[in-house]
Amino acid sequence: MQKTALALMIGVSLICTISACQPKADTSEPSESVSLKVVKNTDTQSLIETSEPKMVAGKAIMAKDCIALNQTMQKIDGNSEIEAIESVQHLLRTCLPTASNTEVLELLKNYQAMYRQFLTDKVEVNDESLNNAIYELHYGEGLSSDQLKTLSPRAQYLIGLVDSDADVRIRDLGEGYFSFDHNLKAMAELFIPYLRKDQAAFIGRMAQDNQEIFWSDAAITTSFEELIERAIFWDNYIQNYPNGYAVKDAKILLNLYQYALFFGSDNTDWTDYDFHEFTSPEYEQLMIGLAKRPESTLTHNARTFLKFMTLSDSERQQITVDETGTSNSYNSLEEILQVYPPWDVRHYRDCLNGIFCENDIDFENLKVSTAFAAACPSTGFGSMQLEDDLKVWGFDTEFNDKTLECEPLNLKDYSDFECALNMDWNDNLIISFYNQSGWFKSAYVNSEDCNLALKGHLAADNEKM
User: Fold this and answer.
1) For 393-443, what is each residue's pLDDT tens digit?
2) How far, in Å, CA of 105 to CA of 100, rounded?
3) DSSP secondary-structure letter at 271?
4) 215 is a domain residue
5) Taking the CB of the first residue and of the last residue of the chain, which one, N or C, has fewer CB atoms within 10 A?
6) Together in a domain, 44 and 182
7) End-to-end alpha-carbon separation of the chain, Å?
8) What is the CA angle 251-203-11, rounded to 5?
């Protein structure tokens, strides 16, 4: 099995480095702040005005401004200027102290989404002239006025923000690509004083680690020592907050960093190919130090890894064999550690961009249940992983028969098939069952989508005849 680094994963010091100098959230009622209370409705929580306005930067902040803050952020896009961001920041400093925990998290998610829209709308990441210009700005001697004039007005504006030390920075995506990005640490510092301890730890660490990309050209961009430190953090987080904020994502991150630590990548090797010796004495000493830490999932795996490196090839062959009936060190190590490629899952969670882990497929904006989407891997082929019966609609793809109809299916009946998750032309998800003869069935979440797809399938085949 070859070491693999997923291209889609491009562009991912303790929390105290961010939060140690931050003021603690004041839970008492400020004499001049906006007092808020929560009223539940069917979808979200609304903020209700109960007090007098406060002056911030010479502008009166009314409680209604806090109520509309999420909507205000959603309106900011590629036509907005930095003053709109600064206005939101002023509002946040007034509204956050009296917001509930749920509201703080919602504001934070919308704040991150706002900045992404502000920086990416109307800017093409694959624009060659822009990437060449940013390279000169980031690594060269800067841009001349003539070079700047060749760029779009929006790109010129954002470059000006970078030069003026605003909360806008350049992020090197690797392989000659760049993007404009928000300073994640500045974002975290604004919200951390108003988060629970477990939330602050998670958000702060994500902001620190994701300032730069983790994968670049199939290589790991961080050092071996830093990689161990990240793995230790998430190992400790899971132990300290077993029921804490986003603990499932913390486990994804621990698996990610363990995989990178023990297996490296195509262009990053900590050991020789067969895991017999380290490529540097420093790596060996760091791994030994990790194995000496108090018992945990991570330290147990470090000890197992070191022991595995001492096994002979014949001893390793007794551990496991692959689908061809042979054994190799990679498969054997993967089996005993139970640490697998982070992208080899039902659907990939991206934890290397921003301060939240996000689904690689935007489930929330699809007219499909997440259970349907989670049946197959989001990329490539793989066996379905279903916990419950799932009724869908599908048709045979091997036939072009006018009598062919969509029929109700239970995905569990096809759990032994390989499958692939794709998007159809209606922006809905489709699962294709795969066997040796080709695509066997295409399944949709409801009969309407299935029938529409079937018409397209028959029409496309008729054109070929």
Assistant:
1) 988 887 777 778 999 998 888 777 777 777 665 556 788 887 666 677 888
2) 9
3) B
4) no
5) C
6) yes
7) 41
8) 75
264, 391: one domain: no
Q: Give, in order, the Cα–Cα distances in Å from 284 to each of 182, 188, 266, 277, 355.
A: 37, 35, 20, 8, 32
DSSP 335: H
Return the closest-CA partner of residue 183 out of 261, 106, 119: 119
Residue 428 tokens, joined: 């809905």
**Pick from 226, 245, 150, 205: nearest CA to 355:** 205
Whole domain around residue 187: which residue ranges?
Answer: 7-209
| Co-location of 272 and 226 in the same domain | yes
Residue 354 lies in a domain: no
Per residue in 48-68, pLDDT tens?
Answer: 233 333 444 434 555 688 888
Beta-carbon contacts of residue 339 (< 8 Å; ≥ 6 apart): 255, 258, 259, 262, 263, 301
Per the structure, the count of domains in the chain is 3
Classify burial at 458, counting beta carbons within 10 Å of its beta carbon; exposed 0-12, middle 13-18, buried 19 or more: middle
Chain center to CA of 41: 30
Please tell me the pTM assigned to this model.
0.69
Does residue 69 share a domain with residue 183?
yes
Q: Note the pLDDT of residue 377.
A: 61
Cα–Cα distance, 312 to 420 (Å, whole number)? 38
Cα angle, residue 79 at apex, residues 77 and 83 outer, rounded to 5°: 85
Q: What is the 3-state secondary structure (H, E, C) of 223-279?
A: CHHHHHHHHHHHHHHHHHCCCCCCHHHHHHHHHHHHHHHHHCECCECCECCCCCCEC
Paired tokens of 1? 């099995």
* Whether residue 184 sits in one domain with residue 37: yes
Element (H, E) at 441: strand 438-444
Residue 345 lies in a domain: no
Torsion sign, CA atoms 44, 45, 49, 51: negative
